[in-house]
Amino acid sequence: MIGFGSSTALAAAYGIAVTLTMVITAVLLHVVATERWHWPRPVAFMVTGVFLSIDLAFFGANVLKIFHGGWLPSSSGPCSSR
């Protein structure tokens, strides 16, 4: 809880991190389906679209938490990928 100040802020950060991981996983599913499994692009878009619609709905519900501690995973993720 160090750096967050409260368990609510920690829960907000966790929620944002989980939903962003779900979105990234769905995008990577599309890449693997088209590049490695050689699925036709329309089929890959339909399958990925189902997962992304669910994942983005969860992310949309968690966007309000960005100002309550969810900013940490949103800002530290791009910085650590270099």
Characterize the structure shown:
With 82 residues, the protein is mainly α. Helices cover 74% and strands 0% of the residues. The chain has 3 helices and no strands. The two termini are 26 Å apart.
- Structural class per helix/strand content? mainly alpha
Largest sheet: none
Query: What's the end-to-end separation, in Å?
Result: 26 Å
Given the structure, what is the number of helices? 3
Helix percent band = over 70%
Shape: elongated
Give me the count of strands: 0
Short structural summary:
It contains three helices and no strands. The protein has 82 residues and is mainly alpha-helical.
Topology summary:
Elements: H1 7-35, H2 41-62, H3 71-80
Descriptive terms for the model:
82 residues; 74% helix; 3 helices; mainly alpha
